[in-house]
Amino acid sequence: MNLPIEPAPLSYADKLKAMLDGDTRYDGELFSSAPTSGRKIAAQAKPREPLHFMRLSTPLGTMLAMAEQRGLVMLEFIDRPILMRELEELRARFGYAMTPGNNPHLQQIEDELARYFAGTLTRFEVALHTPGSVFQNQVWSALRQVPYGTTCTYGQIAVLLGKPGASRAVGLANGSNRMSIVLPCHRVIGADGSLTGYGGGKPRKEFLLRLERVAIQMADQQQLAF
Predict the structure, then answer these.
(1) CATH number (domain holding residue 113)
(2) What is the C-alpha radius of gyration for the chain, rounded to an integer number of angstroms?
(3) Which residues are catalytically annotated?
């Protein structure tokens, strides 16, 4: 007699992927009992308002955007290796209740991201809310000041913050940035000029830097034409 073969239970990663694909069956399970990576993250805040999320299509692949009432909280490529760890931290450490949906910040980043990739937007105006340490937020704030179409090094950011010996710490904070493109860590390069340290991958970093350089060149040509 052939016994029915039960399908193997889905892993946490598979359930997360299903959720990102629009399957709502696992939402409650994922965000009420997500597994911890390494050490257990202690809750530091009571549950807050819902953190709405939506998927955005871009020339570089699908991105996950998340926002609460105060602003955009995350913008990441869905294939970033540490995405699940970031989601877990938002749930467990910062107490967010994640749910599919929309809010004005998500609508704004969808519009601004489209204009950025079209080469017509050089600075994002969407409001941000970036849970993290004081030092991380100092680094992320400095990132937002790096001009469109330019690059800087970890050491230069450390000097800007008045901590010239903190290049490594700056690099770690840069790697913890959950706001791809908007907080432009793709503009930070190694001291030797190498394209290093981008969570979205080197090809995407090259694409973004090239996109910005081309947009500036086209704008300059248009000005000369007048």
Answers:
(1) 3.30.160
(2) 19
(3) 185
